[in-house]
Amino acid sequence: MELQETANITARPPLRPAVSVKLVPLERCSYLWVFLLQLLIVATAVVAFSYFLGEDEHKLTMVYMTTTLTPFMLLAMGSIVSLCPKDTWVRASSFILCELIFLCRSFIYFGMKNYPGAIGNLMFFGVYYLIYRAMEKLAACLPAKLNNDNESLNKFNCQTIPLTTTGSLMSMLYCASESFSCLLDEENHNDVENCADKINSNEGMLWFLTLSAFAKLYIIPHLEVQYSVADLLRFDLKNSREAVLVLLTAVVGLYTIFVYASSEKLHENFDHRTNTTTTKVVIMDGNETALRNTITKIVPFMIGLVPLVLNLSKNMIPRFRVMTRTTLRARIAPIYRWILELVALTITSLNVYYVFLVYTSTNIEQEVNKIEKWRILCWATNPLIWVVVTLHFFGTPTAQKRKENVMFFLFSMFFVLQTLGNFFQAKIDTERGETRLNSVFVNGFLALMVIPIYLMVNSSRKMLAKHHIDDIDAHLQRCLSLAISIVPPIIFLFAEPQSCVAYANNYKIEQCALLRESNYVVGGHLSYAFLFYVTFGYKLDSMTKGGLLSLQDMRFHTVCQLICLIISSTTCFIVYGMRNSELYAERVFNDESIGKLDEFLTSSSPFSMVADCWAVTLFTQLLHSRRMETEAKFHRRSVDDQKHSKMIHRFTSWVDQRTKKIIEKFHVNDDEARVATPIRVILFLMSISSGVLSLFVVCFSSQLGIQQIYRISHGMGSLRVFSVVSTFIFLFTHLSDTLVADKVIFLSMVVVFGADSYFEYKRRSAWEANIVFGVLASIAMLGILKLKKTTMKVCSFKVRREHCHSVMVAGISQLIPVIFLTSEHWGCLTRFSEDVTENFVKDENCRSVEYGVNAIQMQLAFAFGVYATSSTLMRGDEYSARNITTLNMPRRQLCEVSILGLAALLGILLFGIRQEGETPRASRVWQTICYYAIYLLWFFFFASVIFTSVTRDETNRMTDATLEEKISDLSGSTLHMFGKGKKTQFRSSSEAGALEGDDEKLGVGGTMSLNPGFM
Question: Which of 194-208, 392-406, 464-478 comes out lowest in average pLDDT?
Fold first, then answer.
């Protein structure tokens, strides 16, 4: 009965635990940014409708500008729909204006009798309505896709959308600036059609960047599965439609890069320097222009196929998904192997045709030029085949390598066919006969070198196969990610000089040598770096950032590799920065002697330096790996007498021990927040380089040549940025004590601005501006030294040590583009210095290049300076994308963000329109205004950050002092309640840092924090 009565009682619902749920409010983007995006659409409309109001001579310019701005309009429209899913009026008004622009474009093309263009714009007028409706539906479905999680929605609305839009706009602005530069060029002022191919090629890249932004905003968030690199490695996608979509997007991207890199003007004007006449050289005739237009118009068509694939059935080709993927780990998918084999066979076929062509040809000038073009085309594929063969060979390290051996046979055939082709070409090409005979020996040597390369990679492949399957799979994932990032620049480097070579009918092929050889050096560097990482990357896990910077992980092979890597990378970026020169092309066209710089760049010396450095790197790593394998066998077998049987291993072991003893003298102790002394010595020399060089020129100007004074005095502006970045690295890689060297660097900066003022005074220019900038820079330098002391007082030991390492790594990444940009300016000055006849003359030929490169590297230096000086003293979310998007920040920070945005836009614009030679006065004036505006904007921002950081430190110290006074006023019994340790913690931030240092000595790990004070 009790059981029955109990069963009849209505069960109470279980009590919910008293858990406090924090509701996250939904945040929206500020309408200010939406208004700016709408202004971009309005600007496109103004340019489009101005076609009907402008003069006839400017109508074609308006057409090309409308063509360039249309992708910007579509990107702005896509961002508006995603940012304002519930604001119907904002979306509808923007959409109507976009549709009117397409109608206007169709009327423009109809008036120009370009009927295919008119029909295409009318078709896009209707298609864009469907795209707009699809965007609205996807934006409305996003909350349900994210399970109505406000935090995820806030992250997407206030971070993903703004960062995607901003990044795409910056990249698109650079592409568009190249089009604007061609349109505004004085030579093309009355012949705008000369820029048609460049504008159409840049338009394809703009469309692809817009497509990429749309994919991030509307396609990737709505995928059924968010894929990882492991899924891509096995090509294990959800359905065949997504597999086709990935392959189509990759093909479209690579084709767009090829078209974008191979753009050319329709004709070029070459000046005769002796008789002051100009020769107009036709680059592309009518048939070639028509073919090129067809090639460029394929890009929008292929881009349009990508969204159309989304409308197909998910399992449209079910067997395709099964054939192209693999479920096994530690291997790449079959689709990648097929692609790699197809590329290798294509490259081999090109070389076979080259040999056949040269073997069956006669000594006719047209055939000789055709053969030379094919030779250049085939040889330029060398970096790509290195990547293809390497990735294919390590694609299945645990399986048999039958196909891998065939691929290496094709790799050796590449050099064998090049040897035969150069040998036959030397017989019929009398002008280049000696050069081709030298190439015969080089290619023959490389064909023989394939054997030791095969032995090396085969040995490494066997060592990789002995690792755990998880380690093998992780290594292959990293290799695939590296291949995805390295193939597009190799395609760009391959395609850029090919257009110059392909159209070399009315000019000499040698005019393309500078661009061709420079790109080949960089492409070789990338391919050798890929070979090194794929072959030995799984053995580099033991190295750490702190161990390398403190020299604790340094060994003999590591020292050799770092030295070779520095030499190779520096050579590549210097050569790449000097690759473009109209003056070089004019000298070759006019049969004039080229300078020593161009003789060096067009020779094989830069590539030999890069190849030799990587050969040493690979060889030392191979010896170290084989020796480690032998010593591991000793350890497994418990051998007491661990003596190597091979003499090379005994020698490397002896050298390694001696090197270790030498390096131990420079080790950084565990209680020091700095990097090793040898590294800092190099940084110190780099920091004072511009000051020493300026002082040397001022003191010994009477003993220097005219050309040397011209190069140094005008190149000091770009070299100064290199020293500034080095100064930031030097100052903030030693946060344990203040040094005399800090003040020496300060004096060096003062000397630089003083020398610049002296140079400007000698040139009778505005030397007062340099005095003003020198005073401002001196004040900023004093603030930087103050911030260094503040960082040492406020931050804990763990934060300071981690900050030293982070500054060093970030500084190296900043120095790489600075070296490239500096070399471009110095290359221009070196070429034009041969025409200088008197000291301290004004530079008008490289002024545009100086403004362009300094506008970028100046911002890199300032941005890195803010990170190095103030990142440890600022909160991590002060300048977050969410705060900027919602404008949830103080007015001062809003002004700083506005300053950064304006400076970035001006810098990218100046960099895109830079060009060699004398520019018109009007163009030179507004470039000068923009250049100094960037300088002042960044200086104000930098000064504001320094002032804020110092003020925050003073406020924290006052708060600590007030708190200590209140505690000292308490009675003894009350004071005892806080405990002695608590009182010690409240004394100062520096003592708190010392306590943290004690934890660090005990082995407590930590990461970098942006919070000041206690940790």
Answer: 392-406
Cα gap 191→200, rounded to integer Å: 16
DSSP-based three-state secondary structure for 25: coil
332 neighbors 395 (Cβ within 8 angstroms): yes
CA pair distance 644, 624, nearest whole angstrom: 13
CB contact set of 229 (below 8 Å; sequence gap of 6+): 477, 480, 481
- What one-letter code names the amino acid at 324? T
- H or E element in which residue 225 lies: none
CB 541 within 8 A of CB 464: no
Sorted by sequence, the CB contacts under 8 Å of residue 302 that are 6+ apart come out as: 248, 251, 252, 255, 256
Instruction: Please check whether residue 808 is in contact with residue 675, taking contact to mean a CB–CB distance below 8 angstroms.
Output: yes
Exposed/middle/buried for residue 79 (C-beta within 10 Å: 0-12, 13-18, 19+): buried
Rounded to two decimals, the pTM is 0.85
Q: What is the Cα–Cα distance from 237 to 223, expressed in whole angstroms?
A: 11
Compute the average pLDDT of residues 421-437: 81
**How many beta carbons lie within 10 A of that of residue 125, not counting itself?**
17
DSSP at 17: P
Q: What is the pLDDT of residue 861?
A: 86
Task: Map residue 269 onto helix, strand or coil.
Answer: strand
* Whole-angstrom Cα Rg for the chain: 32
DSSP state of 29: -
734: β partners: 674
The rounded Cα 675 to chain-centroid distance in angstroms is 26
User: Cβ distance 51 to 189 under 8 Å?
Assistant: no
Length of the chain (residues): 1015
At residue 976 the predicted structure's pLDDT band, cuts being 50, 70 and 90, is: very low
Task: Write the DSSP string, 659-720.
Answer: HHHHHHTTPPPTT--B--HHHHHHHHHHHSHHHHHHHHHHHTTTTS-HHHHHHHHHHHHHHH
- Best CA proximity match to 1012, nearest among 959, 956, 958, 963: 956
CA angle 484, 486, 491 (to 5 degrees): 100
d(CA 309, CA 307): 5
Hey, which bits of 187-338 come out as E strands?
Answer: 267-272, 277-282
For residue 349, give both structure tokens: 């076929």
DSSP 544: -
Q: What pLDDT digit, counting tens, does each position of 834-848 carry?
A: 777 776 667 778 888
Q: Decide: residue 105, CB within 10 A, 0-12 exposed, 13-18 middle, 19+ buried.
A: buried
The pLDDT > 90 percentage for the chain reads 14
Q: Which residues contact 984 (CB under 8 A, 6 or more apart)?
A: 991, 995
In the 3-class helix/strand/coil scheme, how is 792-851 assigned residue by residue?
Answer: HHHCCHHHHHHHHHHHHHHHHHHHHHHHHHHHHHHHHHHHHHHHCCCCCCCCCCCHHHHH
Rounded CA separation 21/73 (Å): 42
Give the residue with greater pLDDT, 415 vs 2: 415
> H/E/C letters for each residue in 941-1010?
HHHHHHHHHHHHHHHHHHHHHHHHHHHHCCCHHHHHHHCHHHHHHCCCHHHHHHHHHHHHHCCCCCCCCC
Q: Measure the CA dihedral 876/882/888/890, to 10°.
A: 40
CA 505 – CA 282 distance, rounded (Å): 9
Q: Which residues contact 385 (CB under 8 A, 6 or more apart)?
A: 343, 344, 347, 411, 414
Beta-carbon count within 10 A of 478 CB: 16
* Beta strands 267-272 and 277-282, pairing class: antiparallel
H or E segment and range at residue 311: none
